[in-house]
Amino acid sequence: MQLVSEQRTKLDNADDALFYDYPRFVTHVDDRFIEQLTNLYRQRLESNTRILDLMSSWVSHLPKEMEFAHVEGHGLNAEELAKNPRLDHYFVQNLNKQQVLPFADQFFDAVISTVSVQYLQYPEAIFTEIHRILKVGGIAIISFSNRMFYQKAIQAWRDGSESDRTKLVFKYFAAVPKGFTRPELVANVPPSTSFLAMFGMASGDPFYAVVATRCE
Ligand SMILES: C[S@@+](CC[C@H](N)C(=O)[O-])C[C@H]1O[C@@H](n2cnc3c(N)ncnc32)[C@H](O)[C@@H]1O
């Protein structure tokens, strides 16, 4: 599956580097989301392995007690990445301009990406690269919620329902023929805000993670 060119468009068509030019020292999802993600990492990642945190920032959601052989960070803002305490090294690269990642084949045991996949205009090329740099048996964990910088998300993401977005990430994995195991969805979607509001309760950010491993 390939997106058609209109599906790749953003409302804000300016270079992404401009949008991320100044650092945002904020968290993009709520504590409950982060706790679920950290737990998923605890279950699925292995200590002493090499991890790439693609589209990262100043915070890490990796479990504090786990030690890794190497954590590589990537993003668009060097100031944010410099503050991230878990990164052994980082690099800045605009993935909408350059999709080839600067790593040898099968360099990483895991590639993780949090609340960012919606900004990729060429996801098929990026998932092909994720496949290339993962070891056979290596894992990719792509997580997202319903929050986003709307003007920077691609049309296919903006216009879809949450269920459509999940299917989209499944399709991104499928864009690498025979490359990944059938993706698994790990999701926890709280009851709608309006329903909880009737009982004076607040809702949380929906949690979605699509997980697959490199099979050949
Ligand atoms: C919402 S933030 C998420 C940051 C981090 N993963 C987290 O969990 O807090 C989106 C990230 O995507 C990255 N990003 C957005 N557009 C990008 C692009 N065109 N190329 C590379 N990275 C991009 C930015 O660096 C930004 O930090």
Report the sheet with the most strands, covering strand number, pairing sense and barrel closure.
Answer: 7 strands, mixed
In N-to-C order, the SSE pattern is HHEEHEEHEHHEHE
Q: What is the CATH superfamily classification?
A: Vaccinia Virus protein VP39
Mean pLDDT: 94
Q: Into which percentage range does the β-strand content fall? A: 15-25%
Task: Please characterize this protein's 3D structure.
By secondary structure, the chain is an alpha/beta fold. It has a single domain (5-213), classed as Rossmann fold (3-Layer(aba) Sandwich), CATH 3.40.50.150. The chain contains 7 helices and 7 strands; from the N terminus they run ααββαββαβααβαβ. It has a 7-stranded mixed sheet, sandwiched between helices. β2 (70-75), α3 (78-83) and β3 (89-92) form a beta-alpha-beta unit. The longest helix is centred in the first third of the chain and has 14 residues, at 31-44.
